[in-house]
């Protein structure tokens, strides 16, 4: 046990999942090898694309009593600071391709949009979304890159630093009352009234096409990690907001390794535990109470329906992670614990790591974690709000 006792997480099993559940046609319509190949072709052609580092942490692995711990460090992704650069911006390219095709009366590909081949066909379009920071930054960045307008909705507790970072990409930023989930609804209503394109990272009944592209972009992070690992992982720990990122990683793990896939463990903030509620109930179920957590990117009260379609079958456990554990884990990574390389990880980036490091005897037994385990985690953001990062580290 590396973390303080008051920072101990809770564990819930998903009784609907098992390693031998098949990969279904409905799941393949969301994420597939073909869709991943297209995302790789499009995103791989963007200036500045490079795989992010996969960092071995042997010192932490030894302290955690496991054979290996690898961390995929997304802090440098496209200079945007998080894995979200892969999803929102890719979905913007796909949305603009469809709009441009309708305008031109011929097929226009996302690659043409992304290479700036059809500026006159996209200039009049507006994309919009609600965000707790990182997704909106990706959408704003994509809009600026591909030459259309962006209006980004943020809720009350999104930090000013994050709002400024979005505006720096030329987007109009609008602050809304209420929570993240309220801002999702307001963005959708405004888009409907104005004729804008909603580029959401979450999905709901009747709205699945765009978030499918977002998740297809995220799969690039997973494929880079799997291709760099010396051996397949036995366990993957994934922090969850609406679950799009975890679903993308779990989907690729299932397609790649089939019934021999690793154990998939989700990590919800205690204050935004929609995956814990959903796994406990066996159906999508909102988080209890006010959604409140310092893990801003994970402050989501409802699971994404597309993510549920995948994680219902291929996500095994969820751990609820208290906010109290987050600063310690950020410091552990920042200060080169046990001689490992230092990693700059934001407050929404470490819940998966916390879930792994804090597993006590009973949890280790349940998860099958032991001296032979090879664990993969994703540090999904760097210091996306540098002032806040510093404050937390010094707290
Ligand atoms: C840094 C970071 N990690 C993880 C997530 C969770 O992703 P998802 O909402 O797809 O579960 C987010 C979402 O905003 C995020 O910003």
Structure description:
By secondary structure, the protein is α/β, with parallel strands linked by helices. It has two domains: about 10-80 and about 210-395, Rossmann fold (3-Layer(aba) Sandwich), CATH 3.40.50.1100; about 85-205, 3-Layer(aba) Sandwich (Rossmann fold). Helix content is about 45%, strand content about 15%. The strands form two sheets. It has a seven-stranded mixed sheet with strand order 1-10-9-8-11-3-2, with helices on both faces. The model has no long low-confidence stretch (mean pLDDT about 95). Pyridoxal-5'-phosphate binds next to helix 7 and helix 11.
Salient structural properties:
single chain; 395 residues; alpha/beta; Rossmann fold; 7-stranded mixed sheet; 4-stranded parallel sheet; 43% helix; binds pyridoxal-5'-phosphate
* Biggest β-sheet strands, sense, barrel: 7 strands, mixed
Q: Please tell me how large the radius of gyration is.
A: 20 Å
Strand fraction equals 5-15%
Number of domains: 2
Structure annotation, total helices: 17
Structural class: alpha/beta
Summarize the amount of helix as a percent range.
Answer: 40-55%
Level-1 CATH class name of the largest domain: Alpha Beta
Please give the order of strands in the largest beta sheet. Answer: 1-10-9-8-11-3-2
Please report the total strand number as a whole number: 11
């Amino acid at each position: 046990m590396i973390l303080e006792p008051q920072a101990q997480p809770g564990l819930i099993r998903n009784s609907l999942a098992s390693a031998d559940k098949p990969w279904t046609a409905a799941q393949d319509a969301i994420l597939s090898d073909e869709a991943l190949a297209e995302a790789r072709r499009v995103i791989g052609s963007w200036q500045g694309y490079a795989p992010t580092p996969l960092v071995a942490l042997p010192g932490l692995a030894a302290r955690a009593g496991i054979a290996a711990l690898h961390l995929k460090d997304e802090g440098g992704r496209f200079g945007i600071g998080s894995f979200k650069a892969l999803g929102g911006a890719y979905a913007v390219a796909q949305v603009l391709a469809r709009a441009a095709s309708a305008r031109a009366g011929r097929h226009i590909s996302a690659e043409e949009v992304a290479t700036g081949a059809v500026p006159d066909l996209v200039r009049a379009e507006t994309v919009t979304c609600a965000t707790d920071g990182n997704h909106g930054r990706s959408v704003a960045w994509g809009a600026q890159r591909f030459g259309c307008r962006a209006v980004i909705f943020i809720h009350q507790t999104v930090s000013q630093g994050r709002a400024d970072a979005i505006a720096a990409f030329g987007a109009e930023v609008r602050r809304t009352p209420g929570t993240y989930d309220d801002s999702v609804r307001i963005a959708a209503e405004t888009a409907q009234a104005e004729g804008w394109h909603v580029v959401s990272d979450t999905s709901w009944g009747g709205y699945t096409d765009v978030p499918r592209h977002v998740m297809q972009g995220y799969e690039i992070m997973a494929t880079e990690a799997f291709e760099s690992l010396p051996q397949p992982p036995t366990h993957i720990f994934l922090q969850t907001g609406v679950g799009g990122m975890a679903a993308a990683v779990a989907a690729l793990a299932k397609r790649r390794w089939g019934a021999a896939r690793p154990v998939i463990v989700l990590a919800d903030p205690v204050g935004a535990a929609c995956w814990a509620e959903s796994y406990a109930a066996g159906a999508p179920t909102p988080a209890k109470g006010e959604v409140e957590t310092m893990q801003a990117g994970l402050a989501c009260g409802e699971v994404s329906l597309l993510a549920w379609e995948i994680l219902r079958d291929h996500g095994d456990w969820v751990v609820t992670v208290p906010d109290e554990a987050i600063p310690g884990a950020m410091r552990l990574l920042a200060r080169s614990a046990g001689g490992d390389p230092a990693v700059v990880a934001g407050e929404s980036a470490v819940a998966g790591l916390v879930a792994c490091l804090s597993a006590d005897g009973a949890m280790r037994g349940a998860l099958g974690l032991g001296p032979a385990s090879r664990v993969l985690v994703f540090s999904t953001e760097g210091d996306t709000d540098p002032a806040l990062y510093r404050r937390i580290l010094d707290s």
